[in-house]
């Protein structure tokens, strides 16, 4: 017969160990340890997931950063200086639904609907607060790589210059992709 105190000591000493392991160590059956542990008011629960552990220094940095944000000078033109870019797969089919003129007795011509999976292209577009700056439809089956993105940024810079929005551009003469 195992005393409740020895089961309690085992559970408190190593709460992550299973009741089967405690039973082996205490030389008794698993159901005995399980029922006695539950009778003592203990239950087995899973740990709670957290995204990551923060040190005190990390917490202090986050708090001070959040407290400093309202103190920064408010710039109304902040949003005007931003360029947003996005990519989206779109169904691109130049076979548009056609309208035709017919006399009263003629039969209506037919046209097949586009297949939803036939021609999907990647649409890459860049805009600012005034509207669209640049967009590009990549060829079917192509995706954005580092080289494609660098070329798009260069074309975006050229489009911004042509539109007279030089103030949006960085001070460097060419745009190169950073580390990925």
TrEMBL record:
Coiled-coil ranges from the UniProt annotation: none
Protein name, as recorded: Uncharacterized protein
InterPro entries: RNaseH_sf, Transposase-MT_Hybrid, Transposase_1
Any one Pfam family match given in the protein's UniProt record, by short name: Transposase_1
Xref: PANTHER family: MARINER MOS1 TRANSPOSASE-LIKE PROTEIN
One GO MF term: nucleic acid binding
GN (gene name): Acey_s0043.g812
């Amino acid at each position: 017969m195992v005393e409740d105190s020895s089961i309690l000591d085992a559970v408190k000493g190593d709460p992550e160990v299973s009741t089967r392991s405690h039973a082996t160590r205490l030389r008794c059956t698993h159901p005995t340890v399980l029922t006695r542990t539950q009778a003592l008011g203990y239950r087995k629960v899973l740990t709670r997931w957290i995204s990551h552990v923060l040190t005190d220094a990390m917490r202090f940095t986050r708090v001070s950063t959040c407290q400093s944000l309202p103190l920064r000078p408010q710039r109304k033109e902040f949003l005007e200086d931003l360029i947003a870019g996005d990519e989206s797969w779109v169904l691109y089919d130049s076979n548009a639904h056609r309208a035709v003129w017919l006399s009263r007795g003629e039969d209506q011509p037919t046209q097949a609907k586009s297949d939803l999976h036939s021609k999907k292209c990647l649409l890459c577009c860049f805009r600012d607060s005034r509207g669209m700056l640049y967009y590009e439809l990549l060829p079917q089956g192509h995706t954005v790589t580092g080289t494609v993105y660098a070329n798009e940024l260069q074309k975006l810079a050229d489009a911004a210059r042509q539109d007279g929005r030089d103030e949006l551009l960085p001070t460097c003469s060419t745009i190169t992709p950073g580390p990925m």
